[in-house]
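Office hours follow-up: a student asked to see two folded examples consecutively, so here they are.
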Amino acid sequence: EEVEKLNNSDSEEQTTSRSIMLSLQGQALKLMKNLNAHQISGILWAAGRQKCAKEEYVRSSLESLLSQLDKLNAQDMDSIVWACARLEYKDSSFFKALVEECIKIFDKAQQVETKTLSPKNLSNIVWGLGKMKVKGMDRFALKAANNLTGKVEDFNPRDLSNFAWGFANIIGAKQDDSVRQLFNTIADAAQKRIEDFNAQECSKLLWAMDKVKVKHQGLLESATSKRLVEFKFDSMKEKISIEHIVAGGRNLTDGREETGATAATGGALWESSFVLADWFSRFLCRKHSQRQKLEPSMIRLPIPVKRLLEGFVLPKGSVGVEIGAGLGLASIVAKKCTKIRILATDGDLSVLSLLKRNCEINQSKVNVRKLKWGAKDVMKKLKLKDPPSIIFGSGIVYGKDKGVFRKLHQTITDLAGSETIVLLAHGQGAAPGVHDGSGFFFDTMKEEFEIYKLPFDSLHRNHRNGSNVIHLLIKKTETLATKDEKKDRSKDKKKDKKKKKEEKDVKPKRERKRKLSELCKEKDLKKKKKNKKHSKSQN
């Protein structure tokens, strides 16, 4: 727990936390023979929590657990599978042995009324096996499905969607009456509680339904109907009302995004947009007098981060741009907190109509514009003379399409100036590595931007568990200098071309005339020779 606190702070302490965790694992390797099953699963869980583990340690842990499988309880099994899925470590032979122990628990529960795996344990195990795509898990999945039937009301939305997602990954598109019955049961339960589902949970469940080719019209209608939700931020007097579609507007279009995701995902209300909006409500200030003192724990943070957390005032007359605005929650809150002009942009027409509607509901003067990532002349399209003071976005780095990441990178780079603040919030479903500030997108951004992770303590109190994160990006002075150098070089090249042209034009006219006369004489001589030859041939 102490190491996790370090991991949630600045980059220097994150490095320290990793070295501590790795050294703990090294010591655990030495003591492996003396550790019991519960202790091994606990250390594995911690490694999975931080996504930090030596391959040798994980392999040795699973080898040691093979001889202690009968001593594992439900929580231990949950921790092991969940951790291995997070660490992307797949050992098929171990998991086949583990699920056999799970099946014994299911069978024992049917014979004698004993407590079996809890909904959370069951959903986490199925989710983990589905994520790792371990082969030969069909028998276990069907046993788990039997265990869920009759107890579906005990599953919360997250457990229900995780179970369905993992099960669909294990079973695939197999047409079976038991599978259809299971998913209809899950869909019936989800339809009754659709208001309790968030966008991520609903998206997972509907994806699983598509995967196993089971259609449930009632769930689809409930998930694709428009709903109004109110937000009350602690530091704002006004309530913000947002109209959204839990399923993200998949009923509005049959197309798909470049990322491969269902089109109109911007119609859903994602956690990261709330996290960013809440952050704006507390740290965006209208006046310098509203600035606040930093807590002692934040004094060691990098200077750019400290300036933000003290409360920053954007200069009057400046502009803020949200890219991939979706429903516009962050833009609406930013406009309420500042006196600057806010442009909320998105590339999907159906999403833009929802965005405009939300601005009307909240009587917000946010300007709504259509903007596709990677478009040329972004400044002209948005009618901006100077770079915006702030660029922000939430839940926009997802999928695995590098082409989309390049376009997003290009758009941010074209808009950002030397003093522009870029804030990007990420929630569940972000692209691999994004939460840690790594992966393809951030690797390309690092070439031109300094990247900082805001401390979790600065986020909403219910979202400090690491599932959501906000990154601050500031353009490097070096990249700005190199860009200026490139401009100067191109100017110099143009000047050199002009000089060469002038030099050609300055040549004396007499010289040109002399050369022309010489050429004319040569031509005349050639003609005379030809004429002579022709006359001789006639004679």
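And the second, which I mentioned at the end of office hours:
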Amino acid sequence: MTMMTYWFRQILFITLTAFAFGKPFGIQSGQGILSSGIEEDGGSSFAGSMLYNAEHHVVFLTGSTYGSFWSLQDGARETAKSNCFVSILKLPEEGTQHNVTWLYADRLGTATEVDESCSSMVNIDSRKLYIGGSSEEGGLLSSLRHKGTKRATQYGVLLDLDVHLTSPSTPLLGGRLFHSTSVQSIRSVVAAPDGETIFVASEDSDVSVQNPSFPSTNGNLIKKKKYGSTSKDTFLRVSKLQRKPNVTVPSLNFTETFEPHLWTKEIEAAEVRVAGLELLSSGSLVLVGSILGENEEFAPSDMVGIKNDWDGFITQFDGTKGGILASYRIDASLGKDDIINGICRQKGQDKIFYVVGRTKGLADVDPVASSQSAFLARILIIEGDGITLDWTTQINTKQGGQNVGLRCAVTDDGRQVYVGGRTIDGAVIDHPSIVGPSHGGDDIWLGQIDTDSQNWNWLKQMGTSADEDLSDLQVDKYNNVLVFGDTSGNFQRHNKRSEKTDVFVMSLTRNGESINDQPSPVEEVLISNPPVTSPDYSTTSPTTS
């Protein structure tokens, strides 16, 4: 097959797929923005956070990169240090032949000097982005460190960017530097609709030694080197900030755009992991995550004995003063880990929440069938009555494999919940629709569950012989699910360098159809019955079109 024939077939395939389904689509980073647009990016990129905007039908993406794919500078190369990236992706409308389009992409950082990473963000009315992450001394916002304060090993950073969708750009105005302890890393950011009040949840430590491997939210180290970690002996910090009025930005520098903390709440334990933060219409906050060790005020345990395992927590804070209103601890069995990795809810719903994670003892599980299972739980938060567990369900694997639940997203009508996670080292989800064996490595899986019957409408497992991971899920205005993650394989295109990692964005329809269901000549992947192959095409390089 000639190269021209090959690309013609790929373009035809993408167009026909978009026309037939309106969606789904799939796209993978990795080919740089060099003038040829063909050269393979030599640096890895890792997915952080994704936000969907229904008015403009776009997604905002952020994460960490060592590569040149996201750079707007012609001739940019990969770096030895991690930078943040930010991007805007225009999605195809249903019933059209339009493809996904990069509206904007840029690499934010100091290139080769220090490590910087972005992991969470909030979008204000399509006009502002607040992005949380971490940075070493000498990073983008190090000039905002207050005079007389000591330098730290790792700062928390909150970036303040303007967004212009008509002529896409995201100029960085400044933000705030968090430097009260040796190591700080912002994990979750939420804001009031007007963008004036902001809450951040971070993992902090007075220990000045960083862990060079990025700890995943399930408490275990994953097989990637991704900057942005906190050390052990962490404590949790939740802070409320106010954006400064009438901010003016110096032409050659950044400015501090957020007032000092209005309040800060610290939670101490042996270790703490933040999984998500939600701001309710009442002004209160719901924080979820996992805790190792005791903290009676924060998440009291019903178990008697020495606590040396991880428990999930759901805690409601007073947004005005930072006091704890209610707390619930998922603590199924002494000595068995119950980890919360994500939280979701129906738009506008302040009482019903869903949390997703992994467990070794939350429900009745055959210990031979699964040593670690993903779970989804429905949580009720009633003002004055506290927090209660409504129901739980588990997603198990075959033959003792391990499985982690990572993210969830609720349809606009609240009738279905999309749930996603990762199987580990070739494990296969135990469901009649999924066939095996896996081709190896870690795979991602997606499912849709009915919230009334608690029955799965569909489940799919997707992956290559390399590793895939899932970082975020969003529901679009058609109630399709959008998936953001990273891959070391040929998941949505040919990855010519197996030692590096790309990010991908893909969608599945309400019925579970994906672009991976279509035949293509790359690599067979495990999905559902019958086995299918992943598509082979390269993304359009990001531009400022």
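Two things to take away from it. Residues 1-22, 211-230, 364-370, 519-545 have pLDDT under 50 and may be disordered. Helices lie at 3-21.
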